[in-house]
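Input/output pair, single chain:
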Amino acid sequence: MSSTWKRFCRTMRVMGKRRFLYYGSILGMSVGMGMFSVLCSLLMKAVVDISQSGNYHTLFITLVWIVGAGVVSLLVYRSSAVVYNVEAKRVYGVLYEKILNLEMNLPYAYYEKHHSGEIMSKVSYDLGRMGDIYGSRFRRMMMPFLEVVVYLIPMLALSPYLTVCLVGVNVVMMLLNMLLAEPFRKVSHILSGLNASMTEKLSDILQGMEQVRMFAHGRETVQEYIALSRRYARKSNWRILISSGLESANRGFDLLCSLVFLGLGVFFVQRGYTTLGALAAIYTLYGSFSAQFLQMNRYIPELVAYLAYAQNIFDLLEEQREETNWYSHEACFETDKEVDDTGMVALDSVGFSYGENKVLDDYSIVVRRGECVALTGASGCGKSTVSKLLLGLYPLDKGDITVMGKSVRNMTNENLRQFFSYVPQEPYLFEGSVLENIRMGKRDASKEEVINAAKVANAHTFILNLERGYDTQVGERGNRLSGGQRQRIAIARAILKGAPILLMDEATSALDNESERLVNDAVRRLHGNKTILMIAHRASTIQMADRVCNMETL
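Output:
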């Protein structure tokens, strides 16, 4: 229970100081709605009392002040509801921004270790349910409680003995509901995990549709997804069963409470403990009183269950972010070393490991200004690791990297990346037009600048032959274009960025001969104008280099 309370308090603290405005709006809604019901019950009492006494001249005055007070209570409710909805939507937006900011700042290693489907599940499933806490679940639990308090005041004033008996009966039912809160939480936690696994499988199926259709393992993946879906359905049915049983028990208990009320009411009126008018007023209130108790009983377990989704979001938010500078924890930075002013990139005795797997050990290389260097070697020798270290995706274990004479230890990762235009083996094109994808290299570039970059990249001609030229939509991940076309658009994007160093990681390894020739021609046009570091293994690409560095022989 203590952990649930801590999780709840943490969820509310996300709202900051505005949570008090949020609490106040729920209080205003509860008091406004509760007072309206109280006024209706007082009207019933007045009618019964006046009917018994025959004092009809007070009826009009009573009607006027009750109706006036009722209008005020409804205005309080409605204005509070507006504030509540604004604050609930605002905090969901704040959470969404926090998650988006986190995703932009998670270390590259996180994405290599976690499936994209798992991350999508947290954003679409867990975050949505955490948002529901602010949008409905907390309100549905708190408003019945506050309204019950509002009802209790006049009920105790009208008949304290009868009211105490009714509260005792309803408290028993509330305790029974509290016992079911833990099973709700456990089932919700399991459903969240299953949804993450289903999202991962579905992502694999959609992105690998060709392999799914061609290979037996693809069909097995579909069957695994179906199995997870069926398990999710069984757990959902179990949760529905608990909820339905709870709802049925609450309804049955409501009938029992009504019978208890009638029996006690007759007994107290006969003994003179209360009047018939007070009994009529309490009976009018009791329907709302009992209904709110039932709502409170129902939504306490559901709120506890939704807090499990909130914990998943908190766990994600606690993930370590990428450092602005990986080396900021060091006591002091070394001053930039004296290097040859023609040196653009230098790796000096660099060491790096992925956990226990050592990839680089005292590795050194210098790439001079305007030089084109091909970095070769067998798979696993660390070629791609070099590119990741140059881009600041991982920190060095030892040694140093200097770019244009400056140590990476004295630069932020953002500043380091400004020196590089990067073309990976499988470039990612975003949903949008060809123009928009190239312009990502420089957001304020004119169309003329985009066209010039495309011409240098050998992309201009094929783009003009597309259905709508530069306005042609490339589709998801650029699937409406060939591999060579996507690669040349990626090179155009890199050229448009205007960085002094072009870093190409196996950029032609997956292309056919003609596409490779066109990409290589584009690289040749940049030769001498930019410093080029190519990670490559194809002979035709390596031949363009001024110098070849085989990592296995250095």
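DSSP finds 18 helices and nine strands in the chain. Strands lie at 343-354, 357-368, 372-376, 398-403, 406-407, 420-423, 501-505, 531-535, 547-550.
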